Amino acid sequence: MSTHPARAAPTPPGSVLSHLAHPDGDGDGDGDGDVLLLTKEVTTNAQGFFDERITVPWDKLVSGLRRAGADLARLASVQVRAEMVPLPLEPAAQLSSAEPPQPQPQPQSHPTQLSPPLAYPIPPAPSLRVISDIDDTVKHTGVLLGAKQVFHNVFVRHLDELVLDGVAQWYREMEAWGLGFHYVVRAPWALL
């Protein structure tokens, strides 16, 4: 899951806790009844920006939703909140014993800030998948007519003369129904 920035302006350098949760379903967005799926800590860069990719392990997603009584099949979105936590204050540098201690200015700490919840839709997974070694361009090669005919059909004749009618439309219809496709290829990866 790739997320959009939680804030438009940079934050002071510090830690950011990203909270990923399944909404509680009441639509108020307050996060009180949310199912916490993941918390990840990242550190902002010198300019105060951060960019993080959040991945929830499948077993953690399923177990978290089951504990909360939520149905995984009905999971349509997740909420992300970023909590900006300032870095801890660094202690003053140790001075030599010959010099008297002088008061050091204390760096200002920034208060913890919580972003508003950002909802990210999760596309539904197709329930059916097609595993195929062909794509939507199926043509008649004439294998039963011998090697010369196959060579002629594959390398000499124009593709429009050999394409089997309806196959491309059939593949487009299956895709419109929500089917997923996996293509199996025996060719070396360098040829793809």
Characterization of the model:
The protein starts with 13 loop residues before the first strand and ends in a 9-residue tail after the last strand. It has 192 residues and is α+β, with helices and mostly antiparallel strands. The chain has four helices and seven strands; from the N terminus they run E-E-H-E-E-E-E-H-H-H-E. Helix content is 18%, strand content 22%. It has helices at residues 58-67, 147-156, 159-162, 167-176, and strands at 14-22, 35-43, 77-86, 113-114, 118-121, 129-132, 180-183. The model is unreliable at 1-8 and 25-29 (pLDDT under 50). The protein folds into two domains: 14-88 and 110-121, no CATH class; 129-191, no CATH class. Strands 1, 2, 3, 4 and 5 form a five-stranded antiparallel beta sheet that branches. Strands 6-7 form a two-stranded parallel ribbon.
Order of helices and strands: EEHEEEEHHHE
Report the C-alpha radius of gyration, rounded: 29 Å
Instruction: Report the span from N to C terminus.
Output: 27 Å
Indicate the percent of residues in helices: 10-25%
Average pLDDT over all residues: 71
User: What fraction of residues sit in β-strands?
Assistant: 15-25%
Based on secondary structure, the structural category is alpha+beta
* Count of all domains: 2
Any idea what the shape is? elongated
Number of strands: 7
Largest sheet: 5 strands, antiparallel
Low-confidence stretches: 1-8, 25-29
Helix segment tally: 4
